[in-house]
Amino acid sequence: MPRSTRRRPALAHPATEEIDLLDVLHALSDPTRMTIVRVLRAEPERACGTFPVDVAPSTLSHHFKVLRESGLITQREEANRRFSALRTVDLERRFPGLLDTVLAAYGRTGGGAEARGGGEACGGEDG
């Protein structure tokens, strides 16, 4: 059976000037998404399905979509894999010090007890 040649739609990433503070804060309000952001803060880029979270693939896909559409991460596809990276420069340009402040506060409140696991999904347009 021939492989489908249908390509997935391009991923939506807001321009730097379109990143909205409330969208960013909403995206950072979830522990799973904070885990993803903390991992990406320590590593420049990471393949989807390799994050230390214990959620279903469809749920993980949703979390990546929220992070991407809020402007926190960028994603790129390479062959059959999707890679995520934190938009550190764009976020610092738009909201200086915000990401460092939120991550530091999250760490002080005991956030970051990462669960182990890892789904394969990574922010599809429908997820």
What does this structure look like?
The protein is α+β, with helices and mostly antiparallel strands and 127 residues long. The chain contains five helices and three strands; from the N terminus they run ααβαββαα. It has a three-stranded antiparallel β-sheet. The relative contact order is 0.25.
Provide keyphrases for this structure.
single chain, 127 residues, alpha+beta, three-stranded antiparallel beta sheet, 11% strand
Topology:
Layout: H1 21-27, H2 31-42, E1 46-47, H3 57-70, E2 73-78, E3 81-86, H4 88-94, H5 98-108
Antiparallel strand pairs: 1-3, 2-3
Helix pairs in contact: 1-3
Low-confidence stretches: 114-119
Over the alpha carbons, how many angstroms does the gyration radius reach?
15 Å
Overall residue-averaged pLDDT value: 86
Shape: globular
Report the major sheet: 3 strands, antiparallel
Distance between the termini: 27 Å
Main sheet: which strands, in order across? 1-3-2
Number of strands: 3
The helical percent reads 40-55%
Specify the number of helices. Answer: 5
Element-by-element helix/strand order: HHEHEEHH
Provide the structure class.
alpha+beta
What fraction of the residues are assigned to beta strands by DSSP? 5-15%
Could you give a short description of this structure?
40% of the residues lie in helices and 11% in strands. With 127 residues, it is of the alpha+beta class.
